[in-house]
Amino acid sequence: MLTGAKCEAGVCTCDSDYTYVRGRCRKLVDLGQPCSDDIDCFFSHNRESVVCHRGSCECADGFYRRSSNVCRRRVTNGEECLVHQDCDGDNLRCVNQRCTDAAAQTAKSLQDVAIQTSQSLEKPHVEGSPAKAPPAPKTRDAETNTDTAAATKRVQISTKRAAKECERCRKFGDPCVEEGVECPEVPYTVCRMGQCHCREGYYHKEGRCMAELGEYVHDGQYCEPGTQFSNRRCTCRNDQFYDNNMRTCLKSALGINTSCTQQSQCSPYGAAYCPSVSPKRCTCHPYARYDEATELCVAKDGYEAYCERDGDCALANARCSTEKTCVCKPSYYYVNERCKAANGGECETAADCAFEEAVCQSPSVQSEDESVEPAEPKRCSCGKGHYYQASGNRCLKEAEQYGDECSVDEQCQPLLGELGQCIEGQCQCDENEHHFKDGKCNMKIALDARCSKTSECFVDGDDQDNVECRNSACQCKFDYSPDVERQKCIRPSGKNSSDRPSALKVITLLLTSAAVLITGSALRDAYYG
């Protein structure tokens, strides 16, 4: 098969950018692209649909351009169709895969009902009387244009005569001499390397060179059963499509989101494809949307439109994705039919930002005075007292006091520190591991444990002011005794239960006061004496 072929799951097939035709994988060009022969043009599962006209690929006569690269046959009343757009004529609709005049069909149905009603009234049926069967219609052979019986007899005679006259005729695989010339008595062959082989576009089957779909033949016997012999070519019905092997016809899928096995079954429905993995159902490409009125996948405009490169995207601040759709560039979001800047993106006004509560200003501008000339480009950011949430692309109000409403932890942390959390919709500390002190959430560090600041030290009860971080360890303040087991700082033993000074302390205080007085009196006497 030369270039463009691969072995996939034990089967020879073509690469994604190649199409199998005339015995090998070929890279075909799209509609409107330069060509030198009809076979150069991508035919979307119907060889008759395209031609190379004046050096450019175009839809053939009788076909119309369905989507970006698909040509479909125009059909009239009573012919096979798949979607309404196939039917060429006013009031024609595709009903049960046949083009039907909706108005005429309704009128005919009403007329048939009236006739049947009239006949039933005029000629009542007599029970037991057999109905006379209509004569069997004569069937005619499409190729010989004769009655079936006569055709059968004629075929038998022709077969006998052909067998008698061609007992010594050359056959497929027989030796030949003239290289590159057709072997006599063996249609669609060529002498290659001394043997009679089938030409490109034809394949051997039971001693005969059969035509691939789309190839010309002089007789329908060279087309596979299940295909059509039309305009001297092997083709498929209008509601069927070529199989990848170019030998058999496939039934079309019944519409979008219906079962399929190959891409050709979905091609009638516009920009649709058959997924390579289950569930295999006809699906619109990412760059298309389903239109119920036309029953087609219609290409999108602007955002998610089809593209090959970034320059194909007409939408500002858009790029071409790996799925060949126009999407917003990194740090941009699609909002109100525009690609708007996320936090930190350049802007002219706040309307260029993709989130609410946004401001557009230069990071170097500290004041809110817009008359100040910025030193660098303006960028989108959240206003003062708000936090930007990247996952939701929004500004959230920061908490102003303990217990304020919130939705994420980051709203609480400017106020409560990095340990602040949003618990049950309120900014608070996790009381199992942290405690609120000095306006922040702090780790709970027990007595005698190592610490770095007093706010980390924690004791049970309301005596939080009686503990401090001293010498890198949590300790009770002076005049308080630690109870490590109960994690408390106890009042000094010098105080009784009534919180009045003990007798010992009173005596000590009196003696100290007396000593001061005596010393003062002695100094006075010495001075004046």
TrEMBL record:
- According to the record, the residues making up region (Disordered) are 119-149
Q: What InterPro entries would the database entry show?
A: EB_dom
Q: Which domain of life is it from?
A: Eukaryota
EB domain segment(s): 14-71, 388-441
According to UniProt, the name of this protein is EGF-like domain-containing protein
Instruction: Return the Pfam families for the record.
Output: EB
